[in-house]
Amino acid sequence: SAVISQKPSRDICQRGTSLTIQCQVDSQVTMMFWYRQQPGQSLTLIATANQGSEATYESGFVIDKFPISRPNLTFSTLTVSNMSPEDSSIYLCSVEKGDRGRGYFGPGTRLTVL
Amino acid sequence: ILNVEQSPQSLHVQEGDSTNFTCSFPSSNFYALHWYRWETAKSPEALFVMTLNGDEKKKGRISATLNTKEGYSYLYIKGSQPEDSATYLCAFKGSRRDDKIIFGKGTRLHILP
What we know:
Chain A has strands at about 5, 10-15, 20-25, 30-35, 45-50, 55, 70, 75-80, 90-95, 105, 110-114. With about 110 residues, chain A is mainly beta. Chain B is built from no helices and eleven strands.
């Protein structure tokens, strides 16, 4: 299993600013995943963060908008840059362990952009 | 484009009643189907990982079935309790090396006292 913490748990930000979300796992993992859930939408994968290499972004997401750091095997950050109201979402980090990709999730960061 | 659909989107159930909802997913390149429960302000929590056609899994009052040939899974809750109020997500994982997990939009379950 895995226990994941995230901070902040929520934030209200002004348009044009940036927010960095931190994710800490209680064990070493090769890959960490960043998701977002916009209101009324599915959990959508933003990128996969690999230790020691650049993150892999999914279609529709770019590094300039969502820079990711992965300095070691238990920690990652996601920055939401130059925010707009459309970035208002819940952001979750996740790892997969064991049983056919079973996911473990952090508690999420609820972001509101004004 | 792979699609995972869940229905209904939202459901209100009287406490004590039983209920079920559906997840449909691609019927080819199947590897696993996951069910998660996501309570407000908490992390999504895995309920079941289903891998074989015909699988039935049970955890207390909650059970799930899997049909990989037709691409659907049902989640059943027997004798609903207030603590069952949550969003239930299903997620499909394909068998190809680069396949990522794809989530449905979830079914939001409200248990009425």
